[in-house]
Structures are given as C-alpha cells and as structure tokens.
Amino acid sequence: MFETLSDRLSGIFDKLTGRGSLSESDVDAAMREVRRALIEADVALDVVRTFVESVKEKAVGQDVVKSVTPGQMVVKIVNDQLVELLGSEAEPLSLSASPPVAIMMVGLQGSGKTTTTAKIAKRLAERDNKKVLMASLDVHRPAAQEQLRVLGEQINVETLPIKSGQMPLDIARRALKDAKTGGFDVVLLDTAGRLHVDDELMEESAQVHKLTSP
Ligand SMILES: Nc1nc2c(ncn2[C@@H]2O[C@H](COP(=O)(O)OP(=O)(O)O)[C@@H](O)[C@H]2O)c(=O)[nH]1
Ligand SMILES: [Mg+2]
C-alpha cells in the first residue's frame, strides 16, 4: 500500500520540481492529486482533509510560489507534514503485558495481514528471541489457514494446528490456551479481512478482541 502511495507521490512531485515557476493553481492541482492518492491508499477522510489543509497553510505562509525552487519547497512541506502525520520515530511493539501477549492483526482483505503476521513473527523470534505462536482465524477464505501454516514452516515459527470447522472465537481461545501451556511469549492472531460495513464480521472481531485483550 505504501509503495503505491509513494510512487504516486513521487510522480506528483516530479511534475512540480521539474518546473521553474509555479502558480498557486499548480500547487492546488498538485494538492488535489495528493489528496486523491491518500484517499485511494485508504487514509481516513478527515485525516486527509486536515493534512491537505495544513500543507496549504504552510505553503501559502512561506510564499512558495515566489521562491526560487517552488516545487522543492512544496515537496519539503508535504514531506515534513507526512513525517509528522505518521510519526517521526518508530514505536517498538509493546510486549510488557504478562505472556503470552496477544497481537491481533486486522485490516482489509488483501492488505497484507497474513504476510505481515509472518514478518512480525520472524522478527520477534529471531531478533528478540521470543517464542512465537501464529494462529489463523480466517475461516472465510479456503486456503487462508494453510497459507499461514506454510509461512510458519518457511520462517520456522510454530502455527496453531488447524482444526477444520472451528470458528474464529474458538480458534482464538485455543490459541491462547496452547500459548499459555506451551510457554509462548507472543501469540499472533491473523484475522480474516473485513469491511466496517460487515456487521457480523465486526462483531466477531469485537468478541476476539474482548477475549484476547491484544
Ligand atoms: N508488494 C508487496 N506485496 C505484499 C506485501 N505484503 C503482502 N503482499 C502481497 O499482497 C497479497 C495479499 O497479502 P496477504 O498477506 O495474504 O493479505 P491479507 O488478505 O490481509 O492476509 C499477497 O499476494 C502478498 O504477497 C508488501 O509489503 N509488498
Ligand atoms: Mg490473510
């Protein structure tokens, strides 16, 4: 998702910096594209709105249009603002709760939850020496649980044995229990992708959340 976004943004910026002078409407047009790129990358609408507004405010305040390298100044302002929005420092995962610590992966279908689950697991296991268990609660997509199992084999991280027909909440319960008895530090719960318009799946998420306090 961020790769596409950064491609889009650099495209917009290339257009800006490639020009000697900029009018205010050039800046406006670029910001409209930035806005669209952010929305298409699933950034919340009010976040996008605030973002674009503060960039414009700064751009106007610094007389971008009259400066020698207007394009670069706009790019710098957008960049600074993005850093501020995303946070300028990496936040380490907090694992200070008593083990096993549950981490619940949520997000839209195809957004990379399962892949990221394996990446986090590998990092926690190899770099932080944690004993990690991964469990797939995705019973909606046929091969989802198998996908996680295969990834687990590749990175040498244990996965909860698949029991066909078991519901997500029961899988979560079993994962916690196995993690506890097996002395695991972390249990990663890979959920099925969902949209907020899907009430049933959202309710399921809420129940898993309540059960596992991730
Ligand atoms: N380019 C790229 N592709 C990714 C990344 N993470 C996941 N994918 C791909 O996106 C697709 C969906 O990923 P998956 O982890 O199954 O998403 P999930 O549905 O949220 O579990 C797969 O084809 C992945 O190989 C990433 O960081 N970069
Ligand atoms: Mg998945």
From TrEMBL:
Keywords: GTP-binding, Nucleotide-binding. GO terms for cellular component: signal recognition particle. Residues 1-86 form the Signal recognition particle SRP54 helical bundle domain. GO terms for biological process: SRP-dependent cotranslational protein targeting to membrane. PANTHER family: SIGNAL RECOGNITION PARTICLE 54K PROTEIN SRP54 (PTHR11564), SIGNAL RECOGNITION PARTICLE SUBUNIT SRP54 (PTHR11564:SF5). Residues 100-213 form the SRP54-type proteins GTP-binding domain. The keyword tRNA processing does not apply. SUPFAM superfamilies: P-loop containing nucleoside triphosphate hydrolases. This is SRP54-type proteins GTP-binding domain-containing protein. SMART domains: AAA (SM00382), SRP54 (SM00962), SRP54_N (SM00963). It comes from marine sediment metagenome. It holds the Pfam family SRP54_N. Residues 99-213 form the AAA+ ATPase domain.
